[in-house]
Amino acid sequence: MTFKKNILCIGAGYVGGPTMAVIAAKCPDCKVTVVDVNAERIQGWNTDRLPIFEPGLLEVVQEARGRNLFFSTDIAAGIRAADIIFVSVNTPTKTFGHGAGMASDLQYWEKTAHEIVAHAGNSKIIVEKSTLPVRTAEAMEQILQENAKGIHFEVVSNPEFLSEGSAVRDLLEPDRVLIGSRQTESGARAAQAIADIYTRWVDAGKIITTNLWSAELSKLVANAFLAQRVSSINSMSALCEKTGADVGEISYAVGSDRRIGPRFLNASIGFGGSCFKKDILNLVYISRSYGLDQVADYWQAVIRMNEYQQERFVQTIIREMFQTVVGKRIVLLGFAFKANTGDTRESPGIYVASKLLEEQAVLVVSDPQALENARRDLAGLAGSVEFEPDPYRAAAGAQGLAVITEWEEYKSLDFGKIFASMHKPAFVFDGRNILDHRKLFQIGFNVFPLGKPKLTHFK
Ligand SMILES: NC(=O)c1ccc[n+]([C@@H]2O[C@H](COP(=O)([O-])OP(=O)(O)OC[C@H]3O[C@@H](n4cnc5c(N)ncnc54)[C@H](O)[C@@H]3O)[C@@H](O)[C@H]2O)c1
Questions:
Q1: Residue with the nearest Cα to atom 18 of ligand 1?
Q2: Is the pLDDT confidence value at 147 over 90?
Q3: Ligand 1 geometric centre to CA of 41 (Å)
Q4: Atom number in ligand 1 closest to CA 17
Q5: Is the pLDDT reported for residue 46 higher than 90?
Q6: Which CATH code is given to the segment(s) 5-202?
Q7: pLDDT tens digits along 12-28
Q8: Which terminus, N or C, of the chain has the lesser number of Cβ atoms within 10 Å?
Q9: CA 128–ligand 1 middle distance (angstroms)
Q10: What average pLDDT score do residues 358-369 get?
Q11: Under a CB-based contact definition with an 8 Å cutoff, are residues 130 and 162 in contact?
């Protein structure tokens, strides 16, 4: 079969895989190839044990795989054949040298730019799908235009706003699709070519076109605003615990204001994931590099508040369990950074586990999807850690339960049965405020929600 367009995606991760699967499913007349340097990942995408867990993803992949969706390690061949190349490689926070701990590490992204130059034989549209510092497209253009082949590369920014755990739904029904391009004729043509892909299933009114820099920066701003809401309500959870106010009631009362809205107002142990922290750090770094220290300080505080919330959570556990957790079996209910994913990058669970191990607790980590990653995350830590997918087995003989991830199934656990199997006094620390605290208290637990009065049986 001849395809209308050849689309390539470099980077088969949490963004590249699902995004391309949905594009392939919706555009059967386009050939979509996803390439990666990681052969194990590519092999996973070619089986029904996909390398990432996302509800509904396997079905979408199965619909298109082998028809017009292909996963391969042959990057050079992919580049040669492509009309449009999405670059979806990782852009983590730099861990070395200048800007360490703040700036984006652009080495993977730059490597792809050089690979494109090396293997391309004709003009192509290059789409920034990765989240990048504002004005990265300029550097991309400079590398690409340095080719001696007389080829024109048009760079377009199309940042991804999907949320892990609901990636397929977010891709099928996005709030908006953002496409930034040069304000030139060829820039507009390239933006239109990308818009033409999305309008197969997205309402044209949801496609926003901007200049390149606005698109790049909008992605950082969107993540900063979302994280800021989490930190804002979390800061109030601390104040609620001191004053007897209930953060759930505050969220409802405040979120009922249409100017504010109810979403992203649940107090929690804090945000995790590969993006929020890294993107804010990047925003802080960029602001500082332009001499905007007040702007940088303002956003840095969002991260500081997130760290504070995690520290508070651990301190509560230690304080309430009579100032010591030495030798006490404590279960982390969940380890993924959020529900419906196996991703543990920057999960608050990592901090909680490491601190409790430092305090010589006996840790049991339970999670329906993330235990493989949890094992990797905790591998270097000294102390006793068990990994147990079954929450009932995990809780047997334990003294404390700490909810780290808001998995739906935790709400319907038989806590009467769990309580019966635990050492007494038994404690619950609900880092997501998802459990029925009054019911747990009636069962016999001492309950410590976030930002709400504690419920204890101690006189
Ligand atoms: N994860 C999310 O929820 C999310 C959401 C929106 C945007 N983003 C952004 O999208 C980008 C990708 O994120 P991710 O979570 O998919 O990362 P990821 O680490 O899961 O995937 C990136 C993939 O790129 C591959 N890669 C790196 N260099 C390569 C090269 N030179 N050639 C071929 N493959 C290469 C890696 O092997 C890896 O499999 C990041 O910039 C991230 O900030 C992520």
A1: 13
A2: no
A3: 12
A4: 16
A5: yes
A6: 3.40.50.720
A7: 999 999 999 999 999 99
A8: C
A9: 11
A10: 98
A11: no
Q: Do domains 5-202 and 212-459 have the same CATH topology?
A: yes
Sole residue written with tokens 């804090």: 270
pTM over 0.70: yes
Domain ranges of the chain: 5-202, 212-459
Distance between CA 21 and CA 194 in Å, rounded?
Answer: 16
| Cis ω for the linkage preceding 425 (within 30 of 0) | yes
**Separation of alpha carbons 218 and 157, rounded Å:** 11
Look up the CATH superfamily of 212-459: NAD(P)-binding Rossmann-like Domain (3.40.50.720)
Residues in the chain: 459
* 27 is an active site residue: no
What's the pLDDT score for residue 149?
A: 85
* Ligand 1 centroid, distance to 432 Cα (angstroms): 28
Distance 392 CA to ligand 1 centre (A): 36
Nearest CA to ligand 1 atom 1: 14
Residues in the ligand 1 pocket, defined by CB under 6 Å:
10-16, 35-38, 41, 75, 88-91, 108, 111-112, 130-131, 160, 162, 164, 274-275
Instruction: Let me know if 70 is exposed, middle or buried by CB neighbors in 10 A (0-12, 13-18, 19+).
Output: buried
- State the closest ligand 1 atom to the C-alpha of 15, by its place in the atom list counted from 1: 16
> Closest Cα to atom 37, ligand 1: which residue?
38
Residue type at 5? Answer: K
pLDDT at 148: 79
Using a 10 angstrom Cβ sphere, with 0-12 exposed, 13-18 middle and 19 or more buried, the burial of residue 441 is: middle
User: Hey, whose CA ends up nearest to atom 13 of ligand 1?
Assistant: 90
